[in-house]
Amino acid sequence: MRFVVVFLAVVYAAFSGVAFSAPQESFDQFLVGFEKKALSAGIPKTVYRAATKGLKPDPSIKVSQGSQPEFEKPVWSYLDQRITADRIERGRSAFGKNEALFNRVGNAYGVDPYMLAAIWGVETDYGAIMNNDRYFKPVLRSLFSLVHQRRGRVKLDEAELIAALQIYARGEAPVSGLKGSWAGALGHLQIMPSAFLTHGTDFDGDGKRDPHGSLGDALASSAKWLLGVGYQPGQDWGYEVDLPKGFDYMLAGRTQLRSISFFAERGVTRVKRRKFGDLDEQVFLYVPAGAGGPKFLMTQNYLALKGYNFADSYALAVAHLTDRLKGAGPFVNSWPRQAKFLNRQQRIELQKRMMKLGFYADKLDGRFGPISQDALRQWQKRHGHLADGFATIGVYNSVMNSN
Ligand code: CA
Fold first, then answer.
1. pLDDT, tens digit, for every residue of 349-392?
2. pLDDT tens-digit profile of 291-318?
3. Domain boundaries, position 372
4. What separation in Å is there between the alpha carbon of 211 and the centre of ligand 1?
5. How many domains does the chain have?
6. Is position 205 within any domain?
7. Could you tell me the distance, in angstroms and rounded to a whole number, from the CA of residue 205 to the centre of ligand 1?
8. Alpha-carbon distance 379 to 213, whole Å?
9. 200 CA to middle of ligand 1, Å?
């Protein structure tokens, strides 16, 4: 567990700096200059030269890298978009067609096969977008282009580029065979090259680790990766819950995991009178859209999903699709869709104001994640508001006008 907390802190730090500066050198100069780094990371010169021979940058990278929708939209619109009736239907059918394989992987690693199917669905629409050249590109070219552009997370991008070169150097794929997203994620389940390098698995036993051509390899590799970031076999991702009247929202937040019984003793119940299983299970209370929206007790497995993609809306989408593929219905409580959501500029202003008032000491990036929500809860509590950490226009106005 400690590993995951540290790991997430590192990822968070990396993601919270989004600003990027324009490259100072031409792409060709950059390729020549980067060779030294690649060689010192153990990439043979012949391999580096072969990978970069005649390589041209991907002109679309500049446009793509600015936006990541999971950080920019209200969580419900992200979920609406990712979990449509059509995607649930096709997911159940895709799972059915590959059920034996899913169960074999699930049994081998103890990772919920429906969760793997949900990642597959959210990442590549069950493999459907893998044939679309707009989304699926040669990963080495994407990563060289990204590193050349030097966006805010350049150290992580460089690490992924080196990892992709190492995969190539091992002869596991031809240059053009490593395909994935503009950010470098590989194959069916969009596993990052560094994760694939350490956790990639030849599940189908053909002698190659292939996250693109083999669904079994892709599923097993991601299952191993999830275990590596703290996934606990046999645990659910979490539970939708109801909170009693007068509940102390200061108990929300993830700096500390507590047993389910801690929350149950304070009147937290599962929706629709469902029963908790193991009361000793360690959870945290997550209130993504305030007192008027769905609330959850989340386990370590929810945090493991965040190892896949740091955004909470992403993790919640995968978690929910997991249940929908199993036949469950939508969340019981509805989202506060009438709430006026803040735009990015307002979220930055809110962070700045909270910083000035002494409630916030992190990045001014407009990403209103757990740290910003904790700060807002502190402010709300101090000023006698319901401390649910949900940043609406009304709350924004109150904070901006407070002393
Ligand atoms: Ca294989």
1. 999 999 999 999 999 999 888 899 999 999 999 999 999 999 99
2. 999 999 999 999 999 988 888 999 999 9
3. 344-400
4. 8
5. 1
6. no
7. 5
8. 51
9. 10
